[in-house]
């Protein structure tokens, strides 16, 4: 794709002092944002936010030190986009888990220096990146990322066809934390969840979430903000979402992380937790012909 030519991208979309495009040794093209409020790196493969670090703060987003950057491979950490289904495909197990959007090239279609000092970049999923055998529906998909004192990510699905379609989706966000022992996650008290570790049994959350073993839970019928209270870093990370009715909390713990092979050291899993803004299970989204759905999340430090 000519869009992936770094020179062309810089001519069309670079913002002096805020945004430039580079090519990683792996061949992936990266959008590098550094303004007076924060810095961030985003891969054009998957429109995948790899880092977000406000000025004067430690990183908010976790990227595995052993993440494998390679064309067609998902990146361990950051903000992977799961689309147009979440988890395994409902009817065909040969289709990729969490959909194809996170491993295919996206195009940059706009960039903007905003009046408040933040930087916005808009990506679009080109038709050439959509495998028609897996997704035969007419649509337009964009990912709008704004980097400033806080980060917003908005995944927009527009149905440009004549018939309704159904999507599952997630911003599968990995957060950088001091240690799993030092955090508690609030905002999901009293919510029902499906416990993947417990054979998908339906349970109810009692109190704040703490992590002392593998956790993989899909909380349903919740649009609440979540707060990761990190006593080790003396800060909280707020996840404020719109257009999402499910939340996933995930940490693979020791054995699963070791099997994955791209978590870094034996203790890599201790420095991360995923709190994902999702539409899945009974909360999948029906997008009518001509309609648009937006999954919008703001990440901020308190």
SSE topology string:
HEEEEEEEEEEEEEEEEEEEHEEE
Roughly what fraction of the amino acids lie in strands?
35-45%
The main pleated sheet reads as:
8 strands, antiparallel
Mean pLDDT: 95
Distance between the termini: 41 Å
Radius of gyration of CA atoms, rounded to a whole number: 18 Å
> Structural class, please?
mainly beta
Q: Can you tell me the number of structural domains?
A: 1
Return the CATH class. Answer: Mainly Beta
Number of helices: 2
Shape: globular
Uncertain segments? none
The total of beta strands comes to 22
Indicate the CATH topology: Beta-galactosidase, Chain A, domain 5
State the CATH architecture. Distorted Sandwich
Write the layout of secondary structure elements.
Layout: H1 6-13, E1 19-23, E2 29-34, E3 38-43, E4 48-54, E5 81-82, E6 107-113, E7 119-124, E8 139-147, E9 151-159, E10 165-167, E11 169-171, E12 174-176, E13 183-186, E14 192-195, E15 201-204, E16 215-220, E17 226-230, E18 235-242, E19 246-251, H2 253-260, E20 272-279, E21 285-287, E22 292-301
Structure notes:
With about 300 residues, the protein is mainly beta. The chain has a single domain, classed as Distorted Sandwich (Beta-galactosidase, Chain A, domain 5), CATH 2.70.98.10. Helix content is about 5%, strand content about 40%. The protein has helices spanning about 5-15, 255-260; strands at about 20-25, 30-35, 40-45, 50-55, 80, 105-115, 120-125, 140-145, 150-160, 165, 170, 175, 185, 190-195, 200-205, 215-220, 225-230, 235-240, 245-250, 270-280, 285, 290-300. The strands form 4 sheets. Strands 5, 11, 12, 14, 15, 16, 19 and 20 form an 8-stranded antiparallel sheet that branches. Strand 17 (about 225-230) and strand 18 form a beta hairpin. The chain is globular and about 50 Å long. The mean pLDDT is about 95.
